[in-house]
Design brief:
43% of the residues lie in helices and 10% in strands. The chain has 138 residues and is mainly alpha-helical. It folds into 2 domains: 53 residues, no CATH class; 78 residues, no CATH class. The strands form 2 sheets. It has a two-stranded antiparallel sheet. A hairpin with a 5-residue loop joins strand 1 and strand 2.
Length: 138
């Protein structure tokens, strides 16, 4: 079985322009920050203002499994099931800015959440786990 770091290092990021194309967002509506990040133009945001809001589904847990696969597996399975029903779905990982370490108030605080691509989330999780393990050894 591959380690988390091996999986994260093998991840291939998709250029943001290709992601935008799948979302029917034109190149003129992107302000690029490299190949993988962009801001949406004010004109685009104004053009979608009257559309109905989409649905946001958060998959979270307070006690990770030893392999850490629970939330990701559930998210991807849910995304695939919804896509099979003909819905347009896009998944990313939601992460805590500051690790909650079991503190419920940090866990549910919406200002402590950030959206990360899956490979970035995996790398951050690995780094935090290693730092935690190092602190325990001291």
């Amino acid at each position: 079985m591959k380690t988390d770091i091996e999986i994260a290092q093998e991840a291939v990021m998709e250029p943001i322009e290709r992601v935008a194309e799948k979302l029917e967002i034109g190149a003129d509506d992107l302000e690029l920050y490299g190949k993988y990040k962009a801001k949406l133009s004010e004109e685009f945001m104004a053009s979608v203002q009257d559309r109905p809001d989409g649905k946001l589904i958060l998959v979270t847990a307070i006690n990770p499994t030893p392999a850490g696969e629970g939330k990701t597996t559930a998210s991807i399975a849910l995304m695939r099931a919804l896509a099979r029903r003909g819905l347009r779905v896009y998944a990313t990982d939601v992460d805590h800015v500051e690790p909650h370490d079991g503190d419920w108030s940090k866990f549910i605080d919406p200002t402590n959440l950030q959206s990360l691509c899956h490979s970035c989330h995996s790398a951050k999780t690995i780094a935090e786990s290693r730092a935690k393990a190092t602190r325990r050894k001291r």
